[in-house]
Structure formats: structure tokens, C-alpha cells
């Protein structure tokens, strides 16, 4: 199969997606149609065992557990108290509650594993308080949309699980590799909020993001109790993986048990509560696993057709250095993220791209963080940036969608800058897993 055939197939796939066909349907249709053209009905005999093996892969069982974990913490009301606690500690910084938005997103990301859930949860809690204090809509909404993207970088992350499954990379190492980039990106967002607030104040421009009123230290210390559930869940997941006493799936199960105990302690545990959490978990898990199985259907055709080898040889023939290759991939993922959701983007590209970057000498664990960062960027780039629509959906003032886009643009630029720094200093992501493992 030539590179022209591959590019033609990719163009057909993008065209089908742009007219609105579900991504799972497109992948299965192209996988089966392409395989039948290349090899005939015998290909179908190969797809059955592959799909059976995928559906029985142990690492994928962690996906519903982490989704359930996020649902339990989301619907128990813990997010409201967590936001209030962080507001007491971060609200005095220049930028006021905008720091609380980003800090709460980072903390909730350490338990939910979902960008959309993070943005929706923190946005629902934060927007009423921001509106009462007269914060500019663009700055408020932008900080929430960008902060929500941390949900797929800070572990536990469903998208890192998907990458580990598709690329055959250790999920434990991916989780550990995401810790330092996640913390640094959070601090970068907060530094931007501080700098922007000081700049507006210095120019005498109206800036509603003033610091919150001073609160006694005793009240601040008491408020820290509300951060214990999220911190405990994060330590259980990362600690059990780091110490080698649990796999990612087992650590997720332990975290769910602890979360249930916290929900029970809050007096929210009931059959109705569990029914809601389990139903939503089943819906989300079904969607994710359907797309993954469809991706592996397409991967059978890609593997038998030698497409990965053809692409690798073509890229090698371009004579690109590893750094130039990564910057080319940054542009590719930036454009792709404008038109596709994160999961679709990952399952379509990872099976083809990972062998290419591995052949170029790029660490696949590091590349997992790179892919997740670029996927994060796709969450806040129109026209298909999911977090933009989520945050717009939870606001109640009926303002224009342009407010969200305008507020998110600076954070998108910061994420591009941070990804470039990661390219030049890969130790940002690799130092911790290399040290621990």
C-alpha cells in the first residue's frame, strides 16, 4: 500500500466524520471495507480473536472504575466544599477566585480522570460565586475551560489508560509521568492569572478579580478537612501503584471503596444515589469501549496492510530530526483537535504514530504525555472544543459563546508553550518515572 493510498483513506475518514457519522461506525466501516478489498473475507476471521482479546484486556477494566470514582465524588457534594476550602486559601492572591477555579480543577482532576466532568463540576460550583462578585465573564469562563483540561493529564486519567492500552505502555509509568507536568501546567495557569491581574490593575483598567476578604487562620485550617477526600483518593491510587502493591485496576478499586466510605460518612449513600452513579458510569464506559473496539477493528487492517511500516519509511525519508518530527506532530494534532474529540483523536492516531516516533528514538512514555497535552489543547480550540461548550452550557447569564473562546485563547497559547518546553526538556515528564521505576 502506497502513501497516496493511505492519505486518500485518511481523507475519506475525515470527510465521513465531518458529515456527522459516529467515529466508531466510521472506523469499523473503513476497517472492514479496506480489509475486504485487500484480503477478502478471510480478514473477518482475524478480527474476531482481536476484539475478544481487547475486551478481555485487564488494564481496560480500570476505565469503568475510575469513571465511577469520579461520579461518586461529583454527585456527593464534595466538590462544593472543596471549592470553598480552596477559595479561603487562594482567594487572596491577585486574581481572586480565578486561582480557586484552576486549583479546584487540578484537585478534582486528581480524582475524576475526566476533563469534561472536571469542567462541568467546578463550573457549576464556581460560576454563581463569580457572577455575584462581578468577575469578567471571559476571564472566569476561560479559567474554567482551561482548568478542566487538567482532568486528562493529572492522574488518574482515563485518556492515559487508553493510550497505555493502544500503545502497549505501562499505565503506572504514564500516571507517574503525568504528575510533574500536571503540577507545572497548573502553576503556569495561576502565574498567568496573577500576571494578567497585576497588568490590568497597573493600567487602571476595571478588574473585578480582586482578592477575597481576609479570613482567620483557624477557619482556613478547618476548611482543609474538606480537601481530605480528594487527597486521600489521589494518594491511594498513586501510592499503591508506586509501591508496587496494586495494578492500576486494583488501585482504582481501592479508591472506589474509599470514596464510598466518604460518601457514606457524608450521609449521601443510598440506592438512588448509587443507581445514578452506576447508570452514568455504564453509559460513559460503553461509549469509550465501543470506540476502542472499533479502533482495533481498523488496526487489524492497518497492521495486515503494512500501513505503519509504510508511514514510518515515508517519515524517515523526509529526513526530519526527532525535534522537527515532534513540532510537525504538534501542528498535526492542533489542526486535528479543532475537528475531533479527544478519544477519537487518540484511537485514530496512536496505533500509527507511536511506531513512527519510537523508531525515531522518542520514549513512548514521554510521547504519551505529549499526546495528552495536545489532546488537552483540542478541548479548548473551536469549533469542537468540548470544554468550551461544557462551560458555556453551565453558565446561567445567557452570554455569548465568544466570551468562552476569548477567555480560553491565552491558555491555549500557554499549553502550546508548555508542550514546546516539554520537547526541549523531556526530563519534565521522564524524571519521576525513571527515578521511581
Describe the 3D structure:
This protein has helices at 3-18, 23-39, 42-55, 62-75, 78-90, 97-112, 115-132, 137-148, 158-167, 171-177, 179-202, 217-223, 228-242, 248-265, 271-304, 307-318, 322-337, 342-359, 364-378, 386-394, 402-424, 427-436. Helix 5 (78-90) packs across helix 6. It starts with a helix and ends with a helix. The protein is globular and about 70 Å long. The protein has 22 helices and no strands. The chain is mainly α.
Please give a handful of descriptors for the protein shown.
globular; 437 residues; single chain; 22 helices; mainly alpha; 77% helix
Q: Briefly, what is this?
A:
By secondary structure, the chain is mainly α. It contains 22 helices and no strands.
β-strand percent reads under 5%
Give the oligomeric state of the chains in this entry, treating copies of one chain as homo and distinct chains as hetero: single chain
Strand segment count: 0
User: Average pLDDT value?
Assistant: 84
How many helices? 22
Shape summary: globular
Radius of gyration: 22 Å
Distance between the termini: 40 Å
Low-confidence runs: none
The percent range for helix content is over 70%
Instruction: Give a short account of the largest sheet.
Output: none
Estimated structural class: mainly alpha
Order of helices and strands: HHHHHHHHHHHHHHHHHHHHHH
Amino acid at each position: 500500500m502506497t502513501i497516496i493510498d493511505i492519505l486518500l483513506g485518511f481523507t475519506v475518514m475525515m470527510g465521513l466524520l465531518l458529515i456527522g457519522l459516529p467515529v466508531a461506525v466510521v472506523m469499523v466501516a473503513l476497517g472492514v471495507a479496506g480489509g475486504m478489498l485487500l484480503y477478502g473475507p478471510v480478514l473477518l476471521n482475524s478480527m474476531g480473536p482481536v476484539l475478544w482479546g481487547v475486551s478481555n484486556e485487564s488494564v481496560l477494566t480500570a476505565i469503568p472504575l475510575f469513571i465511577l470514582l469520579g461520579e461518586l465524588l461529583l454527585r456527593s457534594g464534595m466538590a462544593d466544599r472543596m471549592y470553598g476550602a480552596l477559595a479561603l486559601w487562594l482567594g487572596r492572591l491577585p486574581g481572586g477566585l480565578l486561582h480557586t477555579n484552576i486549583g479546584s480543577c487540578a484537585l478534582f482532576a486528581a480524582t475524576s480522570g475526566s476533563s469534561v466532568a472536571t469542567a462541568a463540576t467546578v463550573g457549576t460550583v464556581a460560576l454563581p460565586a463569580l457572577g455575584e462578585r462581578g468577575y469578567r465573564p471571559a476571564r472566569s469562563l476561560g479559567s474554567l475551560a482551561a482548568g478542566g483540561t487538567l482532568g486528562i493529564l493529572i492522574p488518574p486519567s482515563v485518556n492515559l489508560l487508553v493510550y497505555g492500552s493502544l500503545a502497549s505502555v505501562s499505565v503506572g509509568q504514564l500516571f507517574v509521568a503525568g504528575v510533574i507536568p500536571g503540577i507545572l501546567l497548573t502553576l503556569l495557569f495561576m502565574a498567568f492569572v496573577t500576571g494578567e491581574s497585576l497588568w490590568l490593575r497597573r493600567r487602571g483598567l476595571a478588574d473585578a478579580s480582586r482578592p477575597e476578604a481576609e479570613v482567620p487562620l483557624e477557619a482556613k485550617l478547618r476548611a482543609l478537612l474538606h480537601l481530605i477526600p480528594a487527597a486521600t483518593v489521589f494518594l491511594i491510587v498513586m501510592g499503591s501503584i508506586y509501591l508496587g502493591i496494586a495494578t492500576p485496576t486494583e488501585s482504582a478499586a481501592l479508591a472506589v471503596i474509599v470514596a464510598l466510605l466518604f460518601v457514606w460518612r457524608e450521609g449521601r449513600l443510598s440506592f438512588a444515589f448509587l443507581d445514578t452513579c452506576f447508570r452514568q458510569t455504564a453509559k460513559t464506559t460503553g461509549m469509550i469501549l465501543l470506540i476502542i473496539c472499533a479502533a482495533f477493528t481498523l488496526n487489524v487492517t492497518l497492521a495486515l496492510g503494512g500501513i505503519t511500516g509504510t508511514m514510518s519509511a515515508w517519515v524517515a525519508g523526509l529526513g526530519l530530526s526527532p525535534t522537527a518530527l515532534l513540532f510537525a506532530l504538534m501542528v498535526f494534532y492542533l489542526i486535528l483537535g479543532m475537528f475531533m474529540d479527544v478519544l477519537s483523536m487518540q484511537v485514530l492516531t496512536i496505533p500509527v504514530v507511536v511506531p513512527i516516533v519510537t523508531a525515531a528514538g522518542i520514549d513512548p512514555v514521554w510521547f504519551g504525555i505529549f499526546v495528552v497535552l495536545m489532546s488537552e489543547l483540542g478541548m479548548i480550540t473551536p469549533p469542537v472544543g468540548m470544554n468550551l461548550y461544557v462551560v458555556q452550557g453551565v453558565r446561567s447569564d445567557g452570554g455569548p459563546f465568544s466570551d468562552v473562546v476569548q477567555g480560553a485563547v491565552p491558555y491555549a497559547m500557554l499549553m502550546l508553550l508548555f508542550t514546546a518546553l516539554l520537547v526541549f526538556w523531556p526530563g519534565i515528564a521522564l524524571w519521576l518515572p525513571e527515578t521511581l521505576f
